[in-house]
């Protein structure tokens, strides 16, 4: 399996608070990695460092063999790093369809004038069809003209996942995709993530729902205080008294 | 009739100013209070270059627009790269600092202002005024159309998303800094256009006409007419041009008229912010036409 993302000795501190300390993480094509750990372990911060939302103090982020650590967030997204957010962060003033259309990955490397071309009718139709296809995956096509605020939190999670898929990138970073989700949506998300991995994407999931990680992930990574403490299967970690104590503070 | 023409010219100029300000603060969500100084750059820039070189007035106005645009980029670029909040501080500094330079320089006419600005029309009289009304009207419509074009379709979607959540917007691969910079530069350039038209109509300008307080008047036009609406700022400009005239009809002593205007302007903003924050032409809060779900799709239980 080929490597998509590799972080090397990634470090980040906010004053005295360490959110990443020498983090080495590798995500490979077709693999689903579960990132677990207690709150404040640095899981979301690691996502922020990989996608460029915050700059690293030191270390490097390599995407498909190219160092991208110095690139701004929007360029990394264009290169194929797509992420979802813990609290969805859908654009409340835009419909679900517009939220997805904005995430369409295309060559935006030119000037600002060329960044939002008045696409030809067939291009617009193709983009809409692609958005509808992503909504179909999460069974939310009926909400296409709704505002996100008109949907339940769980449904917003599904839309958020569909928006990530619009990027069509090599790397998907999913931040707590199951929070607030239950019932059929739970199965939808699981199926979608599995399909995307089968399509060759490298996927990393931050999740507190251990059964979700167990069902889905090939590999689990345990973080604590900004460090990766252990890498292995979720079963090994659940059985580890040391990690259980770190997780629950028991 | 000349009075009506003069009123229409002022309404047109303030429509350009309010519409361009709406692009920056309303659609772009960028807090700037330097709009009067970009207005001044258009007026002084065009006035000075046409005086000095004798180039045609429209070329001078284009120069004033370009000057305002370039200055706005110089102000916004460093601050927007850090955070949008810094733009407020940078805009205050630029507004106050440049106005002081204008007030204290010989080339600008100092506190007495710049006089003998070449007129656009070679002749004087009603025909010239109505021609100017037409020119300003075209410029105002051009401004409204350009803003409408920018805030609709693909660009409009991007601008709305950027205003809603800049970090999430960047996370989707969009360059928020360039977009904000472009909005600020276009809005400021249009303020420069208004300045050029203003200068070549009144033929003299003074620093007092571009004080920071005029930001409040422009904000009032935008808020009353309708923030983030296409025609709202134009309506605001009309109302705020007519209101002082209506007060004049009451024939109150000047000691009363001035404070009354101030109270009315401030009161209007407060009333609108409380009762109708999206202005006269804005959609009422919470109002939205919800499209019916597609019945062919099985909703998620």
What brief labels describe this structure?
heterodimer; A: 250 residues; alpha/beta; 6-stranded mixed beta sheet; 4-stranded antiparallel beta sheet; 10 helices; 10 strands; 25% strand; globular; B: 301 residues; mainly alpha; 0% strand; disordered C terminus
What does the model show?
- The complex is a heterodimer of chains A (250) and B (301).
- Chain A is of the alpha/beta class and 250 residues long.
- Helix content of chain A is 38%, strand content 25%.
- Chain A has ten helices and ten strands.
- Chain A has a six-stranded mixed β-sheet with strand order 6-7-8-3-9-10, with helices on both faces. Chain A has a four-stranded antiparallel β-sheet with strand order 2-1-4-5, with helices on one face.
- In chain A, helix 3 runs parallel beside helix 6 (153-166), helix 5 crosses helix 6 and helix 6 (153-166) runs parallel beside helix 7.
- In chain B, helix 1 runs antiparallel to helix 8 and helix 2 (35-53) packs antiparallel against helix 3 (57-82).
- Chain B has helices at 2-27, 35-53, 57-82, 85-103, 126-150, 153-164, 166-171, 176-202, 214-225, 232-249, 254-275.
- Chain B has a domain at 2-211.
- Helix content of chain B is 70%, strand content 0%.
- The interface between A and B is large, with 47 and 33 residues.
Biggest β-sheet strands, sense, barrel of chain A: 6 strands, mixed
What sequence of helices (H) and strands (E) makes up the elements of chain A? EEEHEEHEHHHHEHEHEEHH
- Helix and strand pattern of chain B: HHHHHHHHHHH
From the N-terminal CA to the C-terminal CA of chain B, the straight-line distance is: 67 Å
Number of separate helices of chain B: 11
Mean pLDDT of chain A: 90
Radius of gyration over C-alpha positions of chain A, nearest whole angstrom = 18 Å
């Amino acid at each position: 399996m080929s490597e998509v993302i590799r972080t090397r000795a990634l470090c980040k501190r906010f004053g005295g608070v360490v959110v990443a300390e020498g983090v080495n993480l590798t995500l490979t094509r077709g693999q689903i990695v579960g990132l677990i750990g207690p709150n404040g372990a640095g899981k979301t911060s690691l996502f922020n460092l990989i996608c460029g939302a915050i700059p690293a103090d030191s270390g490097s982020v390599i995407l498909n063999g190219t160092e991208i650590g110095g690139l701004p967030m929007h360029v990394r997204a264009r290169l194929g790093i797509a992420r979802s957010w813990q609290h969805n962060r859908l654009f409340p003033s835009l419909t679900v369809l517009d939220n997805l259309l904005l995430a369409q990955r295309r060559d935006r490397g030119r000037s600002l004038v060329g960044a939002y071309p008045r696409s030809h009718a067939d291009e617009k139709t193709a983009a809409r069809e692609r958005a509808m296809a992503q909504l179909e995956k999460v069974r939310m096509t009926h909400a296409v003209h709704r505002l996100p605020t008109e949907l339940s939190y769980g449904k917003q999670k599904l839309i958020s996942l569909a928006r990530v898929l619009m990027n069509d990138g090599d790397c998907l970073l999913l931040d707590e995709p199951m929070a607030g989700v239950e019932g059929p949506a739970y199965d939808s998300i699981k199926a979608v993530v599995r399909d995307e991995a089968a399509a060759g994407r490298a996927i990393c999931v931050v999740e507190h729902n251990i059964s979700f990680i167990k069902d889905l992930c090939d590999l689990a990574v345990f973080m604590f205080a900004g460090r990766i403490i252990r890498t292995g299967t979720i079963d090994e970690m659940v059985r580890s008294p040391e990690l259980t104590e770190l997780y629950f503070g028991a | 009739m000349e009075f009506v023409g003069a009123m229409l010219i002022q309404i047109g100029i303030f429509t350009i100013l309010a519409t361009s300000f709406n692009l920056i603060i309303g659609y772009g969500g960028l807090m700037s209070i330097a709009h009067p100084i970009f207005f001044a750059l258009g007026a002084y820039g065009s006035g000075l270059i046409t005086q000095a070189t004798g180039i045609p007035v429209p070329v001078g106005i284009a120069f004033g627009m370009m000057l305002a645009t370039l200055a706005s980029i110089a102000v916004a670029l460093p601050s927007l790269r850090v955070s949008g909040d810094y733009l407020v501080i940078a805009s205050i500094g630029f507004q106050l600092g440049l106005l002081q330079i204008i007030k204290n320089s010989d080339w600008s006419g100092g506190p007495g202002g710049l006089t003998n600005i070449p007129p656009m029309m070679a002749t004087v009289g009603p025909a010239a005024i109505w021609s100017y009304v037409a020119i300003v009207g075209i410029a105002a419509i051009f401004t409204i159309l350009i803003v409408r074009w920018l805030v609709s379709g693909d660009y409009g979607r991007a601008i709305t998303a950027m205003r809603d959540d800049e970090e999430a917007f960047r996370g989707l691969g969009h360059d928020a800094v360039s977009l904000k910079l472009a909005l600020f530069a276009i809005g400021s350039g249009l303020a420069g256009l208004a300045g050029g038209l203003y200068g070549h109509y009144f033929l003299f300008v003074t620093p007092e006409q571009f004080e920071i307080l005029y930001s409040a008047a422009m904000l009032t036009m935008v808020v009353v007419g309708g923030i983030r609406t296409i025609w709202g700022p134009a309506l605001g400009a009309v109302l705020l041009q007519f209101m002082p005239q209506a007060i004049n009809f009451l024939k109150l002593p000047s000691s009363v008229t001035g404070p009354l205007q101030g109270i009315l302007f401030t009161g209007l903003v407060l009333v609108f912010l409380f009762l109708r924050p999206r202005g006269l032409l804005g959609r009422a809060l919470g109002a939205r036409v919800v499209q019916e779900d597609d019945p062919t799709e099985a909703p998620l239980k």
